[in-house]
Amino acid sequence: MSLERYVYLNGEIIGESEALISPFDRGFLWGDGVYEVTPCFNGKLFRLDDHLKRLYRSLRYTQIHCHLDIEEMREATLKTLKANQDSLGEGKIYRVGHWVSRGLDDPSMVASESDRPTIFIFWRESPSDKLIDKYSKGVKLSVVATRRVPPQCLEARAKVTSKMNQILAELDASSNGSLSLMLDIYGNVAENSVANFFMVKDNVLYTPYEKNVLQGVTRLTVLEMARKLGVAFEERDITLYDLSQADEFFLTSSAICAMPVNQIDRFFPKNPVPGPITEKIINEFVSETGFDFRDLSV
Description:
By secondary structure, the protein is α+β, with helices and mostly antiparallel strands. It has helices spanning about 25-30, 50-60, 70-85, 130-135, 165-175, 215-230, 240-245, 275-290, and strands spanning about 5-10, 10-15, 35-40, 45, 95-100, 120-125, 140-145, 180-185, 190, 195-200, 205, 230-235, 250-255, 255-265.
C-alpha cells in the first residue's frame, strides 16, 4: 500500500484523503480557476519561481483575487514539500499542482459575488517509467479537427482550468492512437493539448508565435538553452507544408521536458529520432535537472 501524501488546502497541510472541497465551488461548477504544474525531480522543484510568476499572471488576467501573495504561495509549497519529503522516492518525477478557483459560488451565480478563493497544492507522481522508450523512439502526433481557442476569445497565455477545448483535441487524436497537434483558426500549427511544439529545419529551431499558445515555462527554457548552445531559433507561423519539410520535431512540457516526435500523420522527420538538436536539448535538461529521463537506474 502506497504512503499517503500531504496536500495544502486553504491554509492547512493535511492528508490527501482529508482534502474536501464543496461541490458548489466555482472550479467544479464552471471550471472557474487557474492552475500551474511544476515538475519535481528526485524531490527537487524545477523552476518553481517561474511557474508561480505565471500563476499570478493568470490570476490577474482572470481577476481571481488570491489571498496569498506570491511569496506566501512559495512558502506554502515548500512546507508541503517538506511534509512529503520522506515519501518522494529517488528516480521519480512528480507533478506539483497549484490550483486556485474563484471559490464558493454565490446563489446568484454571479462571478463577482463568489466567496474566498480555494487554494490547493498537491503532489502527483508522473508515470516516468512509461516515458523511457519514448525518448529514444519518439511519439506520434495527429493534426486534429478541434482548433485552439483563439486569443481574441480567451488568452492562450493564461493557464486556466477550463480545458474542454484541449480535452476534445486529446480525444480526437487518441481515437487513432496518437497525441494531438492543434491548429489555430487560420490553419497554422498551435500546440499539443498539453505541450508546446517545436520543429527543426536546416539547423534552425522554429516554434509558433507566443500569442497562439500557452506561455510555457519549459518552452521559454528551451529558447534559453538554444541561445546557450548557439542554435538559431525563430517564432513564426508553421503550416502543414512546413511540417512536411522538417528535419526534427519535439514537444515540451513540465513533466516530459523535451519529447521527440517520430511522425505527424503522413509526415516523418528527415533526421533520425531523436534528431541532433533535440538530443542537445534533452541533454541540457538532464544537466539542469540532474535527472536522466532516459535511464531511471542512475
